[in-house]
Please model this.
Amino acid sequence: MKVAKRRVYKNVVVLGLAFLLNFSSYISAQALQSSINLEEGLGTTGLAVLYGVFVVSNLFLPKFCIRNFGCNYTIAISFIGYAAFAAANLYATWWTIILGATLCGLSAGPLWSSQSTYVTQIGRAYSSDSGELCEDVVSRLFGIFYTLMTLCAIGGNIASSVLLANVNNTTYVPMTELARCGVDFCPADYNATNAHLTRPPQKTIQILMVIFIALNILSSILVIVFLDKIDYDKKEDSSETNPGENKETPLLNDENKSNETRHQSAASLDLAGQFKVHQGKEGDSSVKVVITTHGQTEEEGIDTITEQNVTASEKLTGTVKRLSTKGWNEDQLTLSWRERLRPELLIATVKLMKEVRLMLIIPLALLSGMLHGFSTAELTQSYVGCTEGIWMVGYIAMAAGVAAALVSMVIGKIKSVARVVSFITAIVMSAAGLILALVWKNLNAKLYILFIISCLLGAGHIALEIGLNTTLGLQFIDHNEAAFANLKLWQSVACVVTFAYSTYNLEELDQQETKYIQSAGRKTTFTRMEQRVLLLILGGLALLQCHLAAEKMTTDQRLEQLSRQLMLQQFFTEQRVRSEGNSGIKQTRNMATGTKAYHQRTHVGTGIAAIHEHANNIRTVGMGEFIAVLNGVEFKTRHNDYRLRMPHPTSNKYHEMVDVPFPEVPPQVKSQPTIEKQILEMREWFKAWKDNNDKERNFKDYFKPVVCYLEGSWTSSNGQIDEPFFSDRHFIDAKEWSELMEKARYTAHSGGKSRLENFAYLPVTIFNVNNGTPIFAQWNYRIACHPIKTFIPLHAFHLVEDLRTRMNMENTPEELSLTRRARFQINFKLRPEKRYREEARSRPTLLDEIMSEVPGKDNYQGDITDETLDGRQVQSTTRKKLNAAYYHRFYLAAGRDAMGDSIQRRGFADDTVFMARTTQEKIPALTQKICQKKKKKKTCTSHTSSWTYAFPLEIIWLTPLSSWNPYNLTMQSKSKRSFVGGRNGKMTEDKAYNGIHDRLYYITPAEFYGKEGKTSDRDRADTAKGVVGVLDQTGVVRAMKSAGTKILFPTIPGVGRLRQRYPIMPVHMEGNSIYKEVEALTDMVMEMKKYIGLYRSPPVGGNGTVPPSTYTPITLQLQSATRETVGPHQHSVELSRSEVEDAMNGEFIDVVTTIMSGHDHELRIGYSEGEWFLVQCDDKLHCWDGHPDVLFREDEE
Model:
């Protein structure tokens, strides 16, 4: 960025210096024209011709010159045209002055259009890269340019004043002649004998003009050598293809010369895009670059560039020997001269005049031209030359240049100057200067007042110039050339009128246009020119005021309308999503494909909602990334891996949380004299929990359910990332929301992903519009937990049918229930029996009771009373006060609705969204004004509220295992990791973990599970090892297993398999009408006997029954590893029905085992005579860690 910034400013400075040199010549020569060529008005007539030709050149030449020569060469050639104007004054005659003025006028149009286009384009390109506001950058660059350019009034004018001072600064002029100066000066009165206006000697003028010509030539050389080129053709083409789009305009310089090449005929051909590079031979630094056109192969390429070198910065440098132009920009290279000379700019300029925006700017352009004409012709001749002599003209003009430079510098330095500041500065200073010129003689015609007038007019003119250039450059982005041509056109028209007007006798005025003021016995008149200028100033002020007011009002109205429409469009999208499904999980990352649609992942992948295990972490719950919908807002999470944390119980501070407390160990366990007896007693507690038997052991005090939920809301944001919840493994990988959005857009565009899955898509919306200003809100979410007060028996959970998953894995419902892919529902009511009852109701359920315990953003201290829009207090369905600060979906309103219901629910059709009100300022609020008319009196009330939304994810059972540490293993601090010294948990004293800590939470004796506690359902994302060695406080190696949160506990002897995590998250598509229909059909097909009465025609029966399959899915177990350095562990593999059938028919099956002890195996297995055996293990005959070659079925162990 610093290099780009330096390059941009370097080019502006080079351009400003070139204009400084060129206009040091031109401005000085122009200022002298009305004085040194006074006879017959030759000087002002020449200037009128110059600006008249300038008008014509503005219409025809700029686009032609820029298109064919580029901005750089157009500027350089135009400078030579200005040299012709100075050369004409070497021998000032009618034909030389008119010829020089014509050449200069022809050069002026392309010059100024090229300059404005160049500065605007590099400003827009830099703005696009830096992220700064385009208006600020362009205004700043124009300020820098004009700061340098306006210094031209110093050098040339000093030279002219010094040379002329010795020839006419001592001339005596009678007072009668001096009295005719100022507003009374008449250039057509040749009877005047004012010696101050006598033409200097020819030799002096020639010396001065030679200096001016040298400055013109030097400025041309400076542009050709030092000014970087812009890819104008690329800019032009892109703007024509995509009008209105702000394209980057790269500079062609050393960093991207590989994208520029020259045709052998010297025609310029710019190639943009990617070039194919072939590395040379070994030791050869040359490369081969193949340039192809669209649709061509490498062999059909235009040509090759063989003499290129690769620099240390990996950029191509060198010279292109030859280049065939076939197929690339062919249309541009074959344009006829007639086509090239088409008056496109004339047409575009005229068309642009119809724009209302430009019409309002034209008076300001005319004012700019008339100010320039007045300063150049009237002030220098009628005031300065008439009273002080021609030699003083340079000093007065220099004062104007210095003032202009200072104003340019100030405007350029202000980081965010509004265009109105430039316009107001111009109007105020110009008006002050002109008024002061009118009353100058009344102030005793002091010389210092002329300096003040010159400074005011110079500052006002340059401020107006900057404002006009910035406005046109930004208001007409796609028509820069036509806009700038219009500016110079109307400025030139004003100059022509001013110069032509000043050469005629203005003494004979109409009676109504003359004002007599008696002063020293003579008559003083307002000339027509000053009258028109003053009228134009007043008119310009009025038009400017109207323009600014109209522009502001129109802009504000359009912005408000556009913002409101965008807001409503977002609302429409949310409403559409709400009507198509419920709040819930929508999709996990798809990593599978197949011949059937159900082979691909849905909300279920390797686990429901990408759940997995980090049981080696004390509080981390494994959950990957997924797409979810919450109250109509669709978003994608990062990899979640949330922790067991809950809202703060006593503080209402935003997002302040504490750890969920773990259950204590039952005293009956801790009181056992030996570890073995503690293990046996702990198993009995788990059996009581499984059987829901609290007669002997009151397990309810030690087995606690926790509901973990996903909470989302719109939030007010300052742009910085607000990490929604802590994870010790993942975070949102961005510093600002805009950065995160760009990363999400790029990954969606490219199909890539964050390797660590730390990107999320969290939308931004226009939440409200305040007086035309859009108020943005950022969507954010978090996962938190809450200890459930209500006891829930295990039989309250029942498996949700998932045919797609069962078909894909060939699982029975019972088999699916023991996997991480299973999803559950909770009974609507707590019942003592284990039988699940299907039912429908429109009243709160057990899930509502659980979620009503969960607080919103105000934490547990929240206490908010909600009201309906008609002012009636909302109650709970039990007719008690409803605390709206807690999550709920049902409420009771006073009175019945239009359908006769008194119990209402949040949302229109979303069955699974829970809502809570909040008073947190971070959550934006909406206000609704309700007006009612009673007895002809209208009363209005406003309802303002902020809401958050949630749905449950899972219920996790916290057990005594989280706290049970029978070996009293040392909990190390974070600074003293247990694996210091290369310890990795192996069953040896030198490799066993030295104690435990929060990420190596292995405190459960391996004996508790028996036979290393087999776990068949594992995922590659799981991080816990099977059995690890941990040193106790006496240095003895203990075989331990992880005690963090698991999906399913390993098999417990005498108890069996138990689930710790019960996913109960809703699925978005369950709210869709199609899904509801399919689920009804599923029940009818899967339970024909139950629903036989619903069939229109009974299913076909008879003898055509299909015999049941003799093959069933099985789980095979590798026997325990024998290698001591690894430690005892087992792996398992799952075989589907088809795989079992293939193996039993003599085929070998390739499978991958589960991960244990930090590794897995790739197996090829076979079946023979009732025995499963290894054919290969990791491409070898035997497994490297000593697993025996025979596998056994898990259910036959």
About this structure: Residues 965-1042 form one domain.
